[in-house]
Amino acid sequence: MWSLLRPKTDASTMMGLLRVTLAFLICAPTSVSSILESWATDFLQKGLFISLIIYFHELDILVFANILHSLTIYQVIYELEEVFFKGILSSLLFLSIKYNIWGKQAS
What we know:
By secondary structure, this protein is mainly alpha-helical.
């Protein structure tokens, strides 16, 4: 069973792969440094972008929460009562003026 899980490579093959990998890193430092530099700048740009999105998203949530807090149910009901009372009072005032004018015309 263990023979199925272990790779079929010996130590000399592994050492050869390690030498090739190290030789590539030593012989081509400019390509590796440019790859690392592009990766680092890309990582920084994405990190800054994500942090700005998180910051402004929290800011939008705070603004929305403040709007909801200022328009609580009691405030909305109070404003609706004012609007309805003004509407009822203005219609009653209009009707009283209308009946007052009709009463003067009839007499």
